[in-house]
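HUMAN: Ready with one sample?

ASSISTANT:
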Amino acid sequence: MLKFATVAVVVRDEKKAVKWYTETLGFRHMDKWDHWHTVAPKGSNVRIHLCPDAKPEKGNTGFMFTVEDIEKEVAALKKKGVRITMPITKEEWGTNAMFADPDGNEFWLLAEE
């Protein structure tokens, strides 16, 4: 059976990106090889591969994180200086928001309901 292992995010500088993900979001730095750096939220087995040497793709990456309390999470991200690109929005399918990393990659937040 296949298990989801990594997702790719294009960044200008993988070492600077690792610093942002670990220091700002509190992720773990999982793999540390030349041109292969991965980070992951604590408690997650899915890793984000920070891909260097390409222009960042603008906008939505399609990656989503679920959170227990979306209002609390968005407030915490703002306090850390994270740019919220879509405010908390209630949709028929759930309550969500989006934030961006320093390279303009956007990520979804979805409230667990």
Notes: The two ends are 28 Å apart (CA to CA). The CA atoms of residues 10 and 21 lie 13 Å apart. The mean pLDDT is 88. Helices lie at 14-24, 70-79.
